[in-house]
Amino acid sequence: MTIDFTEEDVLFVKAEYDKFLSDYSHASFRMSCHAKSRLLIEGHKDGARFIAHEAVDRLKNSKPLAMIRIGEGEGNVLGFFRSKGCIELKWFNSIFYTMDCQVLPIAAAKRFAGELSRAVGKADIIGFRSFTPHPRYVLDIFNAINRSSLRSALGMIRSLQYAKFAVEHCMFRNAVITSAWVHIGLLGHLDFLLENAPVVVVITGRPELEAFFCDKLDKRLSAFITIPVQASDDKSTDRHLHYPKRYNEIMEMLTTDLRGSLVLIGAGIFGKIYCEAAKRSGGVALDMGSAFDILAGKLTRPAHSDPAFFDLDDVPWIKEIIESR
User: In the prediction, which pLDDT does 257 show?
Assistant: First the structure.
């Protein structure tokens, strides 16, 4: 099965793009972020530095934390959740299929989207795509439409619209707002985080990272929880589904007492919900996303090889590990 887009879908995304351009002002959004959040940190490197120190402080004091980032995948899910009808179910399923090689009926999709929306709303630190080393997201959307990457284009639009709506409605009044790219910046602070974490839990689709974390942490690695790798990165016919069986298993695992535990999560749209579940159990949960891909030596996003986002030479110990594989 594949998700095919029609000419009607193209026209729909173009119309949403035009609507977005007429309604969105980055300067106004920045002002709202300053006025209606605990703190705004626009740079992804500055944001990562703040998160690393905030996480260690919370660990020392056994206080929970959730850092969650909103990208185009989450944008499509949240756009569907906020829609009044089923018109956006196709766009929800386009990302769900990319993540897990399956589509959901509308009731199940609404249930999952609601869980994601609730998790995002409880984040202590929230990363938005609006803040990037390259202020080019409007051009990125335009280019995505032109190359027929409709899911990506609409996801970017929906993620920016969600950010605007959420901030204007004071949903993150007590949260720190930063860049969605902080996960890449956090690689430069990974050593610091691991050295200061009494207990660490890792959730990832990169099983090859287990040896790395075992070497770094020894007995402080409480659990290394594997998930099926993202479907778009695994074309094999015997790939196991993530949702709902493995998802429910992990949610159950995260009900244990996690006070004083650092929980590093790289699990796509599912990972945001895992972050909130870990926080609910007292953990310090960080949405590491595709930073785990870099750690595994796989550059799966254009930003991974863009020095404005990440330069391996800035983190020589990680560079050495990757080059040794």
Answer: 98
Residue 325 token pair: 């594989």
Question: What pLDDT shows up at residue 19?
Answer: 96
Segments making up each domain of the chain, as ranges: 7-179, 186-324
Three-class SS state of 36: coil
Tokens 């990125």 belong to residue:
140
| Secondary structure string (H, E, C) spanning 53-65 | HHHHHHHHCCCCE
What is the distance between the alpha carbons of residues 180 and 177, in angstroms, rounded to a whole number?
A: 9
Number of C-alpha atoms within 13 angstroms, CB side, residue 93? 18
**Torsion angle defined by CA atoms of residues 71, 74, 80 and 83, in that order, rounded to the nearest 10 degrees:** -60
pTM value > 0.70:
yes
What pLDDT is attached to residue 164? 96
CA distance 227 to 250: 9
Distance of CA 149 to the CA centre of its chain: 20
**What's the confidence (pLDDT) of residue 80?**
97
Residue among 290, 289, 265, 260 nearest 275 (CA):
265
Distance CA 292, CA 237 (A): 24
CA 221, 227, 233 angle in degrees (round to 5)?
125
Q: Please report, to the nearest 10 degrees, the dihedral formed by the alpha carbons of residues 75, 286, 48, 207 taken in order.
A: -100
Weakly modelled stretches of the chain, pLDDT under 70:
1, 133-135
Reading the block at residue 89, the tokens are 């179910």
Give the integer Cα–Cα distance in Å for 292 and 304.
11
* CB within 8 Å of 243: residues ≥ 6 apart: 96, 100, 102, 112, 270
Burial class from Cβ neighbours inside 10 Å (0-12, 13-18, 19+) for residue 28 reads: exposed
Strand boundaries in the chain, DSSP class E? 39-41, 65-70, 125-128, 176-179, 199-204, 221-226, 261-266, 284-287
5-48 residue pLDDT tens:
999 999 999 999 999 999 999 999 999 999 999 999 999 999 99
Give the CATH number of domain 186-324: 3.40.50
**pLDDT at res. 133:** 65
